[in-house]
Amino acid sequence: MATHSTTNDAPAVTRSGSRLGVPALAVELRHAIMRASRRVRQERSVDDVTPGQYSVLAGLDVHGPLTPREIAAHEKVQPPSMTRTITALEELGLVSRTDHPTDGRQVLVALTPEGSTVVRETRKRRDAWLAKRLAELSPDERDTLARAAEILQRMAES
Q1: Which of 78, 118, 120, 151 is deepest in the core (most CB within 10 A)?
Q2: Quick one: average pLDDT of 36-54?
Q3: pLDDT the model gives residue 16
Q4: Where are the beta strands (DSSP E) in the chain?
């Protein structure tokens, strides 16, 4: 009678038949995610905006106007660093600062229409690049990636 491993450290079998233990799979997956992420981030609509600046723009698009301290917390950087980033984005005309409606000591940072356009166009370019690459894969490979995306989302939320 065959026995099946019920432990969480059973090796994963790659398409080529290689067997990867959990630590080796973690390394391979981390490398693949990082390379894919870097490649997708290369697709942007404005060359003047750094990846860190784009992250601020995308965050403002999702969350709406925020204080510099709130943006720094979201981006996991120190407030002085965020102040420099916000100033650069303001000089590019991508964000604006307004007085906080209830706290006169603070300001709110919001996307300008130009900033919204940069976010929208960058997302469109990134999605198009990825869709083109997905279209080049077999249906089985796309199914595998769809399942992997669900798993990665679940892992990221844990």
Answers
A1: 118
A2: 86
A3: 66
A4: 12-13, 19-20, 95-99, 107-111
Do 117 and 44 touch, CB atoms closer than 8 A? Answer: no
Cβ partners under 8 Å of residue 81, min gap 6: 72
CB 94 within 8 A of CB 112: yes
CA gap 135, 85 in Å, rounded = 37
> Given this model, what pLDDT does residue 106 score?
92
Using CA atoms, how far apart are residues 7 and 1, in angstroms rounded to an integer?
18
Question: Start-end ranges of CATH 1.10.10.10 in the chain?
Answer: 51-112
Q: What is the tens place of the pLDDT at every residue in 48-68?
A: 899 999 999 999 999 999 999
- Tokens (6 digits) for 27: 């390394």
The Cα–Cα gap between 50 and 92 comes to: 12
Task: Give domain 51-112's CATH architecture.
Answer: Orthogonal Bundle (1.10)
Helix 22-41, helix 113-135: angle, nearest 10: 130
